Amino acid sequence: MFSNKDITQFAELETPFYYYDLALLQQTLDSCAVAAKNHGFHVHYAMKANFNHRLLDRIKATGFGADCVSGNEVKKAIERGFDRNQIVFAGVGKSDREINEALDADIFCFNVESVQELEVINELAAKKNKVAKVAIRINPNVDAYTHHNITTGLDENKFGVNAWDLPACADALRQSASLEFVGIHFHIGSQITNLDVYKSLCVKVNEFATWFEDRGFVVRILNVGGGLGIDYHNPEQQVPDFASYFKIFGDFLEKRDNQEVHFELGRALVGQCSSLISKVLYVKNGKKKNFIILDAGMTELMRPALYQAYHQIENISKQDVSAAVKYDVVGPICESTDCFGKEVLLQETQRGDLVAIRSTGAYGEVMSSHYNLRENVRVAFGE
Questions:
Q1: I need a surface site. Which of 70, 152, 298, 376 has the fewest CB within 10 A?
Q2: Largest separation between any pair of C-alpha atoms in the chain
Q3: Distance from CA of residue 312 to its chain's centroid?
């Protein structure tokens, strides 16, 4: 909930803007760090969720590493002071330039997604007289039961090495003098709220770790990815249950004494710490539909248009909840998909009211665009 002081402050700022609650961010980071430490687990922050500098600085200071999916994310992690020995580079399509730059930066590990990528990294590392640490990202064919656009762990997905290609991977590793195999990596999807899914993942991790060990490989790292979801319908329940999440892996992973367990969390760390604040430009009342037209659109928050994602929407200028009206809440972009919510029950709304779209800390600001020649989205911070 926003205080009267918050709303007064928002009224003085030019909309739309992302408002970041840094105190909530820190509370979330601390909760995750304590829960992970109880099991001796290592956490890397998935930078694709949000790379706002203020957030990155808090995450780095908490002691987390960085999970990067592009060369520029690797650069950003180094620029913001993340320990190079805690930076991992994933991604199904790493370019030669990105690989070379990561080799020059001496990052901890490449999460490799194909036999051909192993060959490319080996060749590029050899030219630099370097040895690249690699983990094999395996596609475990585990259904995450989430939106099909953010499922990544099925045979039909482009990500990772399929089980039938593992013998070729093992051969490539044995033949590659410029590669050091350190472990295996998994990531089955995003916005996962059914923790039983992770039990199924643990079974697969155990099987594949044994597969590599039976063939003479030492598996030092079990990187189980991330994907832990947040409650978009109840944004006041702001800090995810990290203790229950990590306990699943503590209970079901067959971890050896010489092994480390790594995680790549993004949305769960930053998702609830931000709201998109927008102003009502117009109200259009019709026979079948009532529309609220905001000054924020899909250019500021892409998730509803891209994933049909739900975000709780609140008219924070109105305290009286007695006069409620159903509205379609839309933006100004010249696209019919520029819609944040249909039939949203809100207080009777007027031009100039402020609207908060909640739970936008992950895949919000970072996915904003200049379509329709829109300006850069603004940001504001609170403690």
A1: 376
A2: 72
A3: 19
Q: Which residues are catalytic?
A: 334
Sign of the CA dihedral 149, 154, 156, 160? positive
The region that residue 128 occupies, defined by phi over 0 for left and psi between -120 and 50 for alpha, beta otherwise, is alpha
Give 92: exposed, middle or buried? Use CB within 10 Å, 0-12, 13-18, 19+. middle
DSSP E strands in the chain: the ranges are 17-21, 42-46, 65-68, 87-89, 109-112, 132-137, 179-185, 221-223, 260-265, 274-285, 290-294, 313-315, 324-330, 339-347, 354-357, 378-382
- The closest alpha carbon to 369, from 314, 317, 297, 311, belongs to 297
CA atoms within 13 A on the CB side of 3: 6
Kindly state the tokens that stand for 197.
């899914």
Lowest mean pLDDT of 56-65, 223-232, 285-294, 324-333, name the range.
285-294
Which has the minimum average pLDDT: 8-12, 152-156, 172-176, 189-193? Answer: 152-156
Identify the helix (H) or strand (E) that includes residue 270.
helix 267-270
- Number of H helices and E strands in the chain, helices first, is 11, 16
Q: Say if residues 330 and 340 touch (Cβ distance below 8 Å).
A: yes
Q: How far is CA 331 from the centre of its chain?
A: 25
Mark out the alpha helices in 12-114 (DSSP H runs): 22-37, 53-62, 71-79, 96-105
The residue to which tokens 């409620």 are assigned: 324
Cα–Cα separations (whole angstroms), residue 51 to 279, 297, 351: 25, 21, 33
Rounded distance, CA 283 to CA 103, Å?
Answer: 54
Query: Would the CA dihedral through 102, 104, 108, 113 be positive or negative?
Result: positive
**Domains in the chain, start-ordered, CATH in brackets?**
4-17+272-382 (2.40.37.10), 22-271 (3.20.20.10)
Per DSSP, what are the bridge partners of residue 223? 185, 262
Whole-number Å distance between alpha carbons of 53 and 76? 9
pLDDT in tens, 87-97: 999 999 999 99
252 sits in which H/E element: helix 242-252
The pLDDT-based confidence of 156 (bands split at 50, 70, 90) is: low
- With bands split at pLDDT 50, 70 and 90, how would you rate the model's confidence at 249? very high
